[in-house]
């Protein structure tokens, strides 16, 4: 059926310029804490309005919509989805001097991220032809070897000497040929259109605007003046046709439509490509500082609007950029400023689930292009809840609707081949409830998690109630896979024990009773007990609470090493596994340690710089353990290097023998905070955040893991692997943000708040944190802590630092526990009532106002 032609009209009027042409403003730290109500954020494409408690149940994205990014590693592109699920992809590609078209899998070419928002209202990235495989740090490493021949073997010195000249030449050539783009997008009007700008930061830069489909769907494209039009059938409703139009503000130097992406690539790189209708490309050659602007829109009929002028696009982009901090997570201060980085990083990794039509957080650098249901995704959900309620809920919903992997027992949801996936996703679902009040997700996840829990006893080799590590074979680098700990030396010497019975999982048992695995087992039981209470299942709650209590008793009886003062794994013959890793603190996370044993763990081990403490925390093996960075030579006399994995590696510590891992840090932080060590928790969070921000500031990365030794020149703190944009990295900085304000995932009222800090450096703020239907801002410094809710001052403490937990506001007043580092005055302003003031002493107090 032929669609009626619309009269040609101005693009900005078509998409609703009034929605984005308002006055530009930025949210400062003071403005965030002002008395006036904050501006409401723009609703995400998948919602109908502001995020309010209980109204957002399993949201999906409305059609039609346009979203910058959204597809695996196509950081410079945008996705368009029309009615009936017709799909189109816009890509901004960079042509290198060597004739290579950089258009997807751009992780190593990403130089800077943000500012941006998870709802696609604004997005900005910088990409470069330099993939940073040759960097000054690599040259410095070679020079260090050559300058200290007594610390290296003759063959290593000769190899470094030969490689130095080659690498210097490669680096010089890469820099001379380097081309960098700044790409910006702003979504417009009803969300079905966007404007964009590509700025060349170097002379003689070649850019390609490509319009095609995201996953190889069928669509047809044609040149239309200086733009491109396209149409394609709906994938869910073939009777619906989606239409798209790309409208650059200036004509291309060359353009064409091609039979395939391969033909387009050949044509753009100087070869010949067969003409066709599968993909269209516009090629531009830009000088330094030149900007190409464009607009694009999708709809259920042909799009006929004129392209906006370049100055109009720039004005709209500037307005959107200025509003990023006004309606989304933002902060200031040494730790609080990480809020902007976390927002940008998670926005970058917001992807589209093409099977279920919603968003999720992309882990790592792709993970197969879809939602990963391992433990990584649990941390992503907890972190995303600070940034976007729709993203967090859609992400975790997808985890429990994902099909079981081929090697998994019949179980949907978290992967059963990682025994911590179920416990961590239970924890994530619970925290989405305590943060957002998302009860519907509890109802969806609970049956799967109960099944997961009830299968775990198949790893109890001797039937005593504690679990042993599953057998993952004898290969190096996989024995700790049941916990995602890969080649952790804790699992190097376990022995295989044939399994009897079980769920059908083909792996055998072992003889190692595992502290970490049993901590996760207990965490799962405890979390299910809490869920059962909320869901009105008292018998279930009693069963799971009893399981948690039993594991607590057994673990304290059998896995506490009294001479070492540590929880250690143990073999079934009674001998101890004495490898010391951060898993010794996992019983804190699960609420298993006695208060005295928790004190010993924190004061005598965590804070000991010979074991875990230091400028960078925490290494994945204790610094004084023989396994610490044991895979390569150590050179204590070197000015810049303590160790390498092996000579020539850009990655300093080997993965689980020293590297700092975000999930470990997050687990240790939560345990320390849970047990009330507020001062230590703040100092720990500050160190985690500092590592994250150093990598973010210096490299533009949020990496999979970090280097535990400060001062090394190879990649600074970030371990340089291909995993430079790893989503769980944000767990490092979220510790600091949770110090400032957090939900209450442990004992007490699940709707209670925690906020304030005893030990974050300086004064820090965080704003636009949405918890259970309210928007909060916090400022915490040496003399003053304030909590603002929905634009109104709710709490103020003066005279000292305070850490507040179990804060519950009721119509009649407020109750909370406060830990102050000096005498302080606290004031609570109950809505509709007079301010209530109380003096509190140094230390801990319970306050009723």
Offer a concise description of the structure.
This protein has 849 residues and is α+β, with helices and mostly antiparallel strands. It is 29% helix and 22% strand. Helix 3 packs antiparallel against helix 4.
Describe it.
It is a single chain. With 849 residues, the chain is of the alpha+beta class. Helices cover 29% and strands 22% of the residues. The chain has 19 helices and 35 strands. The strands form eight sheets. An eight-stranded antiparallel beta sheet has the order 5-6-7-8-15-12-11-10, with helices on both faces. A hairpin with a 7-residue loop joins strand 11 and strand 12. Helix 8 crosses helix 9, helix 10 (389-401) packs antiparallel against helix 11 and helix 12 (439-455) packs across helix 13 (515-534). The longest helix is centred in the first third of the chain and has 23 residues, at 154-176. The termini are far apart.
